[in-house]
Amino acid sequence: MESKKDVVIAAKTPIKVELEAGKEYCYCTCGLSGGQPFCDNSHFGTTHDGGMMFTAEKSGPAFLCRCKHTGNAPYCDGSHTKL
User: Fold this and answer.
1) Which of 25, 44, 50, 67 has a 20 to 30 Å separation from 6 between CA atoms?
2) What is the pTM of this model?
3) DSSP result, the chain
């Protein structure tokens, strides 16, 4: 697994969230957000880009990545187990 040295590991576990089909969300990609797993613009003033916009395909629970190393952002793919 390629290390992402420029991101903060917010947690080594995913977080379960409820998503609404068709709704757009902004996923935190830097790990700095205080509102994990969503972007709260904490990256401003740093070298990090903004969050990643995504639209939920279905309503219901989803496990989103907080380690920021997933290969399937914003969804957890288990990459945290290798950190």
Assistant:
1) 25
2) 0.88
3) ----TTS----SS-EEEEE-TT-EEEE-SSS--TTTTB--STTTTSS----EEEE-SSSEEEEE-SSS--SSTTB--SGGGG-
Q: How far apart (Å, rounded) are the C-alpha atoms in residues 55 and 57?
A: 6
Domain that holds residue 75: 1-83
Q: Would you give the distance in Å from CA 35 to the centre of its chain?
A: 10
Q: What is the pLDDT of residues 12-71, one digit of tens each?
A: 999 999 999 999 999 999 999 999 999 999 887 777 777 899 999 999 999 999 999 999
Number of compact structural domains in the chain: 1
Look at residues 54, 81, 59 and name the one whose alpha carbon lies nearest to residue 70. 81
